[in-house]
Automatic annotation (TrEMBL), chains A, B:
It comes from the Bacteria. Its EC number is 2.7.2.4. ATP binds at K7, Y8, G9, G10, T173, D174, Y179, R184, K209, V210. It catalyses: L-aspartate + ATP = 4-phospho-L-aspartate + ADP. Keywords: Amino-acid biosynthesis, ATP-binding, Kinase, Lysine biosynthesis, Nucleotide-binding, Transferase. PANTHER family: ASPARTATE KINASE (PTHR21499), ASPARTOKINASE (PTHR21499:SF3). This is Aspartokinase. Pathway: Amino-acid biosynthesis; L-methionine biosynthesis via de novo pathway; L-homoserine from L-aspartate: step 1/3; Amino-acid biosynthesis; L-lysine biosynthesis via DAP pathway; (S)-tetrahydrodipicolinate from L-aspartate: step 1/4; Amino-acid biosynthesis; L-threonine biosynthesis; L-threonine from L-aspartate: step 1/5. It comes from Thioalkalivibrio denitrificans. GO terms for biological process: homoserine biosynthetic process; lysine biosynthetic process via diaminopimelate; threonine biosynthetic process. It holds the Pfam family ACT.
Length: 409, 409
């Protein structure tokens, strides 16, 4: 007998039939004796329909009113799911974000959760009800409806699980778990039984878009065991938890990659204090997000500086640098929009030497030239020509034997 | 400079274009220096769409969850209208029923308003905003979403107008006012400049379905001047107020009729205490609403008893009476589903004799046989064969010269 918070996304509740299916799944857990709180998104397509209406009315709708509008999407789903459960003889009760006091800041369209009052939910659970909560939405201290931004239902589920001290937070999606890499790139990619929060954060931010990063951060912060499962097929999914003592930890959990980056390079700038700021200040002022930053130690009093940005921002970033007074006294400003980043992620690498060299060896074996390298505690990222993406991912997947659960121990 | 509460129904906000049109109308009033609070319904068709979803999920959805679902309809409209106003540079803010504390009882799907806290609305008006409120919905003392039942947006508007002590409550609809009778029946029917609350109640309950009865009762109770106007054409509409001292009052305001009634007659029941209760008790226990009731003084210790019910309930009512033990000792139980009720309504008749006889004379002149007569302070109703409906209404409209504003003074 456990308390489980489940979250079903838009595709999982995309039609009357699928909502009935979700009700069946919830009922299964109830029959096993568990208490269940369900968080749902808007039915797929609904948010876009509402956004379309808004755009037809006002090209730049105010954030507050957009939230009033969009929050109806989840409200429809909670009512329908509660009805489906009641129709199965299972007492259920639906709540909007405001009704269970999901208190957020006032940043409309991208609000952050501050606090949740779990009292009402706990009372319903004690009364034997399934509680259905609208994801993605909350209320600010003035009673205004807020939304957490797209995909925010994951965060709602995790925050509720934390507030209720749930035993597990299950995120149902259209994939059956987290994979060692994208199966479309490496056919022998394997579903992970478990992965740590840190690894998941590195995987997610690097492009394996299974879960919202904020939800994973939240889960890690409040130590909520998180499980990613498919709502369309049976299976245990992937459990995301903290590293356990004595747990035999895989060396490498997976290979993430990002195809949306572009590289900007400044060669031969004077190697003086403040150079990084002079370069990146104007970039950040233009609201361009920078991902990797690599600065090489240079010769003869100058240094080389390279960073990556989203491809959409490449031209803008280049223009900004070339428009700077004296062009930073750089010898050359150049770049390449056709690069990819490939990253090896695994908490196991912390305690194992030689991972980096094995990685570079595998890439070299395929004749892949590495342009940039950046490392963190549990991640090694390289930037290579975009044409090497598939080849590089597969070479690394094979080299670290990720197709086998016994890899690298 | 006045405070005006306006209510726009589903047809008036049925599309993006119509919402833009409503925004233009609101802005007109703002430009004239008025403070405006707008109450809106769900876009036409939306409530039916949501009901369809609910029915596909659960043939008998719980009232609480139905209210969570249906209340999204108005919530979409308030956001869109606020966006349309903001798009015109007019500061606006939308509120759900819960957000402005439209406190109701807990009778889901047919809740009644208990209290409204106007403080938040007043603050916004003082800040120069137009306030847009979702009609038809409220919140009970436990924070559950409630709805007032179909058409309840009129009641929301009137209740808000009362709470805010508004100067006028304007109900925009698809007709341009209240008419002396249905123009489809009498082509010379005339729009009334004004009508009293009492007359309006008699007109509405008798079949001139312009306004929700509850809204009129509410407006009368709190003395809120109510105006019915068209949202599609310009014009002053019809003002519904209390009878004013010294106001030259028309003798007759209008002729209402009801084609949905059926007559049930019990002949020759023993004329004893309790006979009415023995007849109507079982009818009311079966949730059948009774409209007119007429009991004649009978001869030889028996009496005759006739009442009318909705035609849909006719067979059921007849079966109940015939199924009663000893059939009430009645000589005969019979009925006729093909009757209509025609009513003459006017506060002026209170102080004028001879209205009834003039009415009966006009009907007799057309050879129309009267089956039942029932009178109140400001109304005389007759039941006739349904084939006489048009003939009877036109004869009365002509006899009382209702086509002319100077009638009967």
């Amino acid at each position: 007998m456990a308390l489980i918070v489940q979250k079903y996304g838009g595709t999982s509740v995309g039609s009357v039939e699928r909502i009935q299916h979700v009700a069946d799944k919830v009922l299964d857990y109830r029959r096993q004796g568990h208490d269940v709180v369900v968080v749902v998104s808007a039915m797929s397509g609904e948010t876009d329909r509402l956004l379309g209406l808004a755009r037809d009315i006002n090209a730049r709708p105010e954030g507050r009113e957009l939230d009033v509008l969009l929050s109806t999407g989840e409200q429809v789903t909670i009512a329908l799911l509660a009805m489906a459960l009641e129709g199965r003889g299972c007492p259920a009760r639906s709540y909007t974000g405001a009704q269970v006091h999901i208190l957020t800041d006032s940043a409309h369209n991208k609000a952050r959760i501050r606090d949740i009052d779990g009292a009402r939910v706990r009372r319903d659970l004690a009364d034997g009800r399934v509680v259905v909560v609208a994801g993605f939405q909350g209320v600010d201290e003035h009673g205004n409806i807020t939304t957490l931004g797209r995909g925010g239902s994951d965060t709602t589920a995790v925050a509720l699980a934390a507030a209720l001290k749930a035993d597990e937070c299950q995120i149902y999606t259209d994939v059956d778990g987290v994979y060692t890499t994208d199966p479309r790139v490496a056919a022998n990619a394997r579903r992970l039984e478990r992965i740590t929060f840190e690894e998941m954060l590195e995987m997610a931010s690097l492009g394996s878009k299974v879960l919202q990063i904020r939800a994973v951060e939240f889960a890690g912060k409040y130590n909520v065991p998180l499980r990613v499962l498919s709502s369309f097929q049976e299976g245990p999914g992937t459990l995301i938890t903290f590293e356990e003592d004595g747990m035999e930890q895989a060396l490498i959990s997976g290979i993430a990659f990002n195809q949306n980056e572009a590289q900007v390079t400044i060669l031969g700038v004077p190697d003086q204090p403040g150079v990084a700021w002079r370069i990146l200040g104007p970039i950040s002022d233009a609201n361009i997000e920078v991902d990797m930053i690599v600065q090489n130690v240079g010769a003869d009093g100058t240094t080389d500086f390279t960073f990556t940005v989203h491809r959409n921002d490449y031209d803008k970033a280049l223009a900004i640098l070339q428009g700077l007074p004296e062009k930073l006294h750089a010898r050359q400003i150049s770049g390449d929009p056709k690069i990819v980043k490939i990253s090896l992620v695994g908490v196991g690498m912390r305690s194992h030497a030689g991972i980096a060299s094995k990685m570079f060896e595998a890439l070299a074996g395929e004749g892949i030239n590495i342009r940039m390298i950046s490392t963190s505690e549990i991640k090694i990222s390289v930037v290579v020509d975009e044409k090497y993406l598939e080849l590089g991912v597969r070479a690394l997947h094979d080299a670290f034997e990720l197709e086998s659960p016994q890899q690298g121990r």
